Amino acid sequence: MNKSIALIFTLLILIISGCKTQNESLSEGVTPIPLSSPAQTWKPGDYLTNVQKMILQAAPRKNPEQPFSFKNPAGPAFSEEQQQEQREAGKSFVLRVEEAYKNGEEYIKIPPGDYRFGQDSIWSKGYVYPLQFSNLLRDADHPLTIDATGVTCWFDLTNDQANAYHSCVGFINCSNIIFRGATIDRGTLGNIEGCITQIDVPNNRIEIRLSPGFKVPVKFNGIYQQRLVPFKADGSFCGPLYALQKGGIHLQYKDIAPGTADGCYWVEMRDTALLETVSDPNWIKAYGSQGVLRVGDGLMCIYTTTIALMLKGCKNMTMQDINIYVPRGWGRESGGYGAHLWKNCYLGPRPGSSRWNGGENFMFGSTRHGTTLDNVTVLHTTDDPANFHGYWGNVKNVTGNRITFGAYDGLRHFLDDTLPYVTVGDSILFYNRETGQLLGRALVAALDTDAVILDGSAMHFANSIARLPEHECGGWTIQNCNWHDNYQRILIASGPGMIRNCNFTNNGSFVQLNADLSSVEGGVPQNITIADNVFTDVNPQPGGVVIEAKMTSGGKPTKFKLINNITIAGNTFNHPGEAAISLDGVANCAILNNHFNDPIRNTALARPGKPHQHQAIILADCADINVEGNTVSDPGNYTSPDPVTGSNILGLDEKCEGITFNKQIK
């Protein structure tokens, strides 16, 4: 191994492991695989400014979360007179900030209190935000701090249904702004929650008593996002029931109709899978109370969504001590330089209220540099807790050095938008859309209204998939975070990146390192480190894995191993649904010194007699993988030695090559 590369990798491991003892070292007795460029030179926080790095070192804020109860109050209530006063106060919010900006001030304090805003969104042309800041541009040494500590921003959004999207706070084309202390909430809730009062199996319906403050729309449109999330009376998510998400229909409801008493409503399901599953004896044996629904548990019914806080086309923004309570309200970063910091933030239900759902997840798309999340709490989501991605583009027409893309491709996002996303000099990689073979690389020489002009002939790239590697949020970090009782996956379609020192508990789906050449969202997860985390009851469904990596095209495996340089080290995996780690068609990775507690059990009990995996780590069609120092605790003896490896930790198929491993029998 090249000595300089080895030294760089060693330093990276030291950063990850911190104060671990020798017995806990990520690489004790193992020669790790060097990460390829750009991860050789990247470490968390590289792209942050000096001011952001100082904020990153601030002490962690106490988590504001409180225990859930249906008996809690609904939250603040205001008279019409108070709401009108809050609307008047809302008019001054942006004016105060803009005045401070124009005067060259570096700090503006917004007086504590409640500020109210109306609705102002345009789905077909992008978004307009009721509380919007545009073109606030400061340099790294002279940021502007907007201190909104003690401020709650209320948004009165209509109670309509998807495909309607709503929005709250937006920073557009801004740089080096610190937004601190604000709470973002919604006056109208935009979903339905309640406690189960009856379960009517013959009629395939569940009755709930609405929690305070919720209203049922007169009619449901029966389309996008009309599904439910089941949870227990203590607020914990029924994680195993995420298995019914497969196919996208088994957790859908078709209507919500008046029930047997005032304030009660029947939730009528589209099919019978949910009520059949919660009464299955094998299912109950595997999952106990967490896998079933009973009277006294809860349902959250989805029908709309909201962008609570957007950073669009921005650079080095800092969101500090922000609380997002907006139901289904998510944080989003889109385009621009990126390198943002989220420090000590909370996305979840209003603490102390009877709400189950609140602010929920992040979408990180197409920034040049990735975000840093430190001490961020995310709970009770109904979608991906985090999604890192760029955009694929289907090459439609090629003429000389001119390329146009399909009308609905993600890459058109860069060409249609008014902000400068793609610029001259950016790289474009072109792949065979079936096999994933790299066909070539070109540079952007010019931009037209509907096309990209390359620096050379484009004729070799007809009918290919285009990728913009410099717009994939590379250099992202999730650290010191607590994410629990969340519905869906953490999707990673970009790199380099790192997840370290986090707790993930009772989440329905997995950490998915995924790339599909046919989807709109694009990128390739490369140079990823997942280290020193604890995963407990993550993806507990039958067949569920905790960390999966797989490259596909239209759902079919690709021939070329684009996903590579993945390190999974020093983690603890408690009760995965089946295997904890599954890599398919991946190359040049290290799986080191992880501990697996009770793998395979859930699948074996929930699906007796059906084929399933028997090892904690499964590799298929992989190359050059180092698997050493891992241990397993298997009190029920659900694992067994693999015929190839002789190990009950590692299973291989016949396509694997260059696999280094210890026998590692428990």
Word description of this protein:
The protein is mainly beta and 666 residues long. It is 10% helix and 35% strand. The strands form four sheets. It has a 13-stranded parallel sheet, with helices on both faces. A twelve-stranded parallel sheet has the order 2-5-8-17-20-23-31-34-38-42-45-48. The longest helix has 23 residues, at 80-102. The protein is globular. The relative contact order is 0.11. Residues 1-40 and 121-125 have low confidence and may be disordered.
Question: Whole-number radius of gyration?
Answer: 25 Å
Apparent shape: globular
Structural class: mainly beta
Number of helices, counting only DSSP H or I runs of 4 residues or more: 7
What's the main sheet like? Answer: 13 strands, parallel
Number of strands: 50
Q: Note the gap between the termini.
A: 32 Å
Portion of residues within helices: 10-25%
Question: Strands of the biggest beta sheet: in what spatial order?
Answer: 1-4-7-16-19-22-30-33-37-41-44-47-50
Give the amount of beta strand, in percent: 35-45%
* Oligomer description: single chain
Low-confidence stretches: 1-40, 121-125
Mean pLDDT: 90
